[in-house]
Specification:
Layout: E1 6-10, E2 16-20, E3 26-30, H1 34-39, H2 44-64
Antiparallel strand pairs: 1-2, 2-3
Length: 77
């Protein structure tokens, strides 16, 4: 992916999206359920920012080859 500025936006339907600043196409979309939004007491945008920030950092490390690529099944928690 070419280097460009990324932005986090709240879409009209309430989903949170990551996209390039110069493009309307979304790269990642987070959709919190009503229950999750209630549990987070309206702080779902802050949680989305943190999730996307860590994801972008990890993608950068992958691109640089800084992460170990263990073979075998992956367990997602």
């Amino acid at each position: 992916m070419p280097t460009s500025y990324l932005e986090i936006v709240e879409l009209p339907d309430g989903r949170i999206a990551l996209r390039r600043a110069d493009d309307e196409e979304t790269l990642v979309v987070l959709d919190f359920s009503a229950d999750a939004k209630e549990f987070l007491q309206g702080q779902h945008v802050e949680v989305a920012k943190a999730m996307l920030s860590v994801g972008v950092q990890m993608a950068g490390k992958l691109a640089e080859g800084d992460l170990d690529h263990a073979q075998g099944p992956r367990v997602l928690h």
